[in-house]
From TrEMBL:
It comes from the Eukaryota. Residues 640-650, 719-730, 758-769 have a biased composition (Low complexity). The lineage of its organism: Eukaryota, Fungi, Dikarya, Basidiomycota, Agaricomycotina. SUPFAM superfamilies: F-box domain, WD40 repeat-like. Residues 1-26, 628-770 are annotated as: Disordered. This is WD40-repeat-containing domain protein. Residues 674-683 have a biased composition (Polar residues). Keywords: Repeat, WD repeat. InterPro entries: F-box-like_dom_sf, F-box_dom, WD40/YVTN_repeat-like_dom_sf, WD40_repeat_dom_sf, WD40_rpt, WD_LIS1/nudF_dynein_reg. Residues 28-74 form the F-box domain. It comes from Favolaschia claudopus. Pfam families: F-box-like.
């Protein structure tokens, strides 16, 4: 090749020293001979600033940068992820999220998008929050010059404010006619009760308000130059006549150019002329309430959602709404099958299609529905969209377009804090899944509000947090915390801290968010070319802050009051805790105990209570058959052993082992039949509860044993008044008397070496340790008997 370096000898190099500068200059221009496709692949990675700088190098690079195809490829590669080697016609739905600003060329489009995104991401402007109403904001509407009108259904008033400066204009616009904008904004005087619906609109600088009442009345308020604080003029007020109003509550009101459409609990839909508050068309009444209404009078269509889930479509209306009832046709769409809740909370009409297309979203439903309506044939076709894994849909925002090379999309927010973006043209079965989905809130807060333009996608959560995302790449740009303080003292707390509505300015750099009774505003300010200065640098010009001094002072006073209140509550809690601790120490000192001794004392009381409960259980009685047959055999062995003359050794250890063996083992089978025994090994107690005596006597005494009497100081005397007659009664099947009901007396035939008679009865001479073992055996037997009884 011509520009490839060749090897030359030393003589040729020395003789051609004069030509070396030309060769070196040629070696440095290798970039000029790269093919245009490869050069485009390189420039796709450059931002607009770098592309403009590259165009100033030489003529060839300048011509390459001037080509709009270079900017187009850089735009789609950096923002849509489409490589330069990919054919745009073969790329699947690459323009789904694209919304052009229609500036003429891709160069201007890329530069504008890059500058706006940089502002949204790196601007250091602060937010401004103000309180336009003394109740939660129901809806907002953007007026010229960044003005906002905010409505409140609680008081039935509309306020006017400038959110970027925090200024609130004096006077309310109400639905009663008393508040015409000339008042001072006193909610105790300027208010309208029983307001159920409100629709805000504007025509230039004129604010239009349509009110719906619980009594069925409709009122219109119009205020010219609503945001002009210098010259205040009274607003116009008009009310409908009694014969035209709804027979029940007005649930929904919407604006359609100069007309208004209302829906009421009487099942009727009415179209109104806002100038004279006259009803120009009404539908036939239905049994169910009409909850939502949407209109496209330019297409002659009005759609209503009923409380039973049906969707009713009226067609054939005139553009001004005036039409005869005979010229309109009605189509009723049944509710979707399998859904328990049929309450529709969103209803839209896609007027960009040749035939009307409806979008309906039901409450507590993870799916939303598309209805393609064929009005001449009177038929419809239903398509489902959604992903049940994302949760129920809580907010939905459609973005329909009729521009070429742009697609209509639907953005949804779910109950689990996720966002899904759907292709409105896709029609999959059984339902269309989202093309893009991501988790907007990691704390699973519901997405309650959505807004989108060509640059940003803004989401609002149920906790008042607002997040900004890139509209094309879906990257997170900025987060705005809730403007509502955690605990307010000066201003009463609003009912719901969720984001109610989000508005974006037409210049794509202004944001308005309604949270509770507050409206937060923010503007994406310019970013210096060299970045922000360090702390030590001195700025030449001081940019004016968007927050007013009065608002800053108000926030400062509220923060101080909140801090004092929190400190006061914390001190009260600490004093209360210390007071309880002091009382406990004082009680311990009166008892003469420390903390360790007090814990031991409490454990001792608990143990005594447990023993008392166990003693009460024992007092209920032990019945015959509560012990196993094995125990009877063991006791008979013990009886025979104790009655023999060879039992000269003390009997206490064998007796203790015998009693332990006679205890029922959990899970061991027991006989169902309970027959009276001919021996007195087992004790039977009568069902009535009797007071237990502290000493016990035995029912019968055994035959005399040929042994010497024990010393008087070793065994107490036992009574011999009980004869073997009781034993005969026991053999006949009669239940013996309560064994511990008589005092313990010594039997004359008692052996000095045996503490248990032949019938297995306990004498008073058993040691205290044996008494404890016996009591434990009886308690375990009773517990086992109760468990078996309850199991049966």
């Amino acid at each position: 090749m011509r520009n490839r370096p060749t090897q030359v000898n030393q003589n040729q190099s020395s003789s051609n020293k004069a030509t070396q500068p030309n060769s070196t200059s040629q070696h440095g221009l290798l970039l000029l001979h790269i093919p245009p496709e490869s050069l485009t692949h390189i420039t796709c990675n450059l931002d607009p600033k770098s592309l403009l700088a590259l165009g100033t190098v030489n003529a060839r690079l300048s011509n390459h940068i001037k080509d709009d195809h270079t900017w187009h490829r850089a735009f789609v590669y950096q923002l849509l992820g489409i490589g330069p080697e990919t054919d745009l016609h073969d790329a699947s739905r690459w323009d789904l999220l694209l919304r052009r600003s229609h500036l003429g060329s891709w160069k201007q489009e890329f530069i504008c998008y890059y500058a706006l995104r940089r502002r949204w991401e790196k601007s250091r402007n602060t937010t401004t929050a103000h309180i336009p109403l003394h109740s939660p904001v129901s809806s907002m509407h953007l007026m010229p010059a960044h003005g906002i009108i905010s409505s409140s259904l609680h008081y039935g008033v509309v306020s006017r404010s400038l959110p970027l400066t925090g200024r609130i204009l004096r006077g309310y616009l109400d639905a009663a006619g008393s508040g015409t904008g000339l008042g001072i904004g006193n909610p105790n005087v300027e208010f309208s009760p029983n307001v159920s619906a409100c629709a805000l609109g504007s025509d230039g600088g004129t604010a239009k308000i349509a009110w719906g009442f619980r009594s069925g009345g409709i009122v219109f308020t119009s205020a010219a130059k609503a945001m002009d604080a210098a010259s205040r003029s009274a607003a116009k007020f008009s009310r409908c006549v009694v014969n035209d109003q709804h027979h029940g509550i007005v649930w929904d009101v919407v604006w359609d150019n100069a007309n208004a459409v209302t829906a009421g609990s009487d099942g009727r839909v009415k179209i109104w002329n806002s100038k004279n508050a006259q009803c120009i068309w009404l539908s036939e009444g239905r049994a169910d309430d009409c909850l939502k209404v949407a209109s496209a009078l330019s297409k002659g269509i009005v759609v209503a959602a009923m409380s039973n889930g049906e969707i009713v479509v009226w067609s054939g209306l005139a553009a001004d709404g005036a039409s005869e009832a005979t010229s309109t046709s009605v189509l009723t769409i049944p509710p979707p099958q399998g859904d328990a809740n049929h309450e529709a909370f969103s209803l839209f009409i896609d007027v960009c299609q040749s035939s009307p297309v409806l979008l309906v979203a039901y409450r507590d439903n993870p799916l939303f529905y598309r209805y393609d309506v064929d009005l001449p044939a009177g038929t419809f076709e239903c398509f489902k969209y959604g992903d049940p894994a994302l949760g129920a849909i809580t907010s939905i925002a459609p973005f329909f377009t009729s521009q070429p090379n742009e697609s209509s999309i639907v953005v949804t927010g779910t109950q689990l804090g996720c966002v899904g973006i759907y292709d409105w043209a896709a029609r999959d079965t059984p339902h269309t899944l989202p093309t893009y989905k991501f988790e907007a809130y990691e704390d699973a807060a519901s997405v309650t509000a959505l807004a989108r333009n060509a640059v940003t996608l803004v989401t609002g959560s149920a906790w008042g947090t607002t997040k900004v995302w890139d509209a094309l790449t879906l990257e997170h740009l900025r987060t705005f915390p809730s403007p509502m303080p955690r605990k307010r003292v000066v201003v009463p707390e609003a009912d719901d801290p969720a984001v109610r509505q989000i508005l974006l300015g037409p210049e794509k750099e202004v944001l308005f968010v309604a949270v509770g009774d507050r409206v937060m505003a923010w503007r994406a300010g310019p970013v210096p070319k060299g970045g922000f200065r360090t702390r030590g640098a001195v700025a030449k010009t001081k940019e004016r802050s968007g927050t007013s001094k009065y608002h800053q002072q108000l926030e400062m006073h509220q923060a101080i009051a909140e801090s004092r209140h929190l400190i006061k509550e914390e001190n009260a809690h600490v004093q209360k805790a210390y007071g309880r601790a002091r009382e406990q120490r004082a009680q311990l000192e009166t008892l003469g105990l420390d903390e360790v001794e007090a814990v031991d004392y409490i454990l001792m009381l608990s143990r005594d209570e447990a023993m008392e409960r166990q003693r009460n259980v024992i007092e209920e009685g032990v019945f015959e058959g509560d012990f196993d047959e094995d125990e009877a055999r063991v006791h008979s062995t013990v009886r025979s052993t104790s009655s023999s003359p060879e039992s000269s050794a003390p009997f206490s250890p064998p007796l203790r082992a015998t009693r332990t063996a006679g205890v029922r083992i959990p899970g061991k089978a027991r006989p169902n039949a309970r027959t009276p025994s001919n021996s007195n090994v087992k004790v039977q107690v009568s069902p009535p509860l009797r007071a237990e005596s502290r000493e016990a006597s035995f029912k019968s005494s055994p035959p005399p044993l040929q042994e010497t009497s024990p010393p008087a100081d070793q065994f107490p005397p036992m009574s011999s008044s009980v004869s073997s007659r009781g034993s005969n009664k026991s053999t006949r099947g009669s239940p013996p008397k309560f064994a511990w009901s008589t005092p313990l007396a010594r039997s004359p035939a008692a052996s000095p070496r045996t503490s248990v008679a032949s019938d297995g009865r306990i004498s008073r001479s058993i040691s205290s340790s044996f008494d404890d073992d016996m009591r434990l055996a009886i308690e375990l037997s009773l517990a086992e008997a109760e468990s078996l009884k309850s199991a049966r």
